[in-house]
Amino acid sequence: MKKLSDVLLGRGEGHVGLAAGLWLGLYFGARAMLEMDGLSPWVRAAIALAPLPAFAWFLRDFIRSVSGADELERRIQLEALAVAFPLTLLLLMTLGLLQIAIDLNMDDWSYRHIWPFLYVFYFMGLMRARRRYQ
Q1: In angstroms, what CA-CA distances link 126 with 5, 9, 66, 88?
Q2: pLDDT tens digits for 65-122?
Q3: Which helix or strand (DSSP H or E) is residue 54 part of?
Q4: What counts of helices (H) and strands (E) characterise the chain?
Q5: Average pLDDT over residues 9-28
Q6: Of 2, 22, 58, 108, which residue has the fewest beta carbons closer than 10 angstroms?
Q7: Cβ contacts of 6-14, under 8 Å, gap ≥ 24
């Protein structure tokens, strides 16, 4: 069985890295275009939705690569998600309660600012699981 890292780095038949790169490029391109003034709401909505197909492609290939990985790699990925999911819930719950308690600056704590935390939580869980199974 292939290791997931081989698939992610393009050393296999999967295209996870290509899909991730395309998604990130489209995301940051959309972010830049949405900063422009003078666009109609329909054009802005289309720009905002443009990264979705690339992200769906990334998710499909990532899930396939995890499914094709060996048993240990699947267990590591599951544990990484088992750490990331509750930490994400904790972040959202805390921010939701803080938003009621005090005025949070939406320029610092909006959805577009907190989604990178989800990747941080996933990689924290991944590092924890890899250390555990070394």
Answers
A1: 12, 16, 13, 15
A2: 888 889 999 999 999 999 999 999 999 999 888 888 898 888 888 888 888 899 999 9
A3: helix 52-67
A4: 7, 0
A5: 79
A6: 108
A7: 7/65, 7/68, 7/69, 8/65, 12/65, 14/61, 14/64, 14/65, 14/68
Give the residue carrying structure tokens 């972040």.
91
Q: For 69, which DSSP code?
A: B
pLDDT at 7: 46
CA distance 118 to 124: 10
Q: Where are the beta strands (DSSP E) in 14-118?
A: none
Which tokens is 124 given? 């924290």
> For the whole model, what pTM was predicted?
0.73
CA atoms within 13 A on the CB side of 12: 20
Average pLDDT across the chain, whole number: 87
Radius of gyration of the chain (CA): 18
CA distances (Å), origin 59, targets 17, 25, 89, 123:
11, 16, 20, 16
Q: What are phi and psi of 36, to 5 degrees?
A: -75, 145
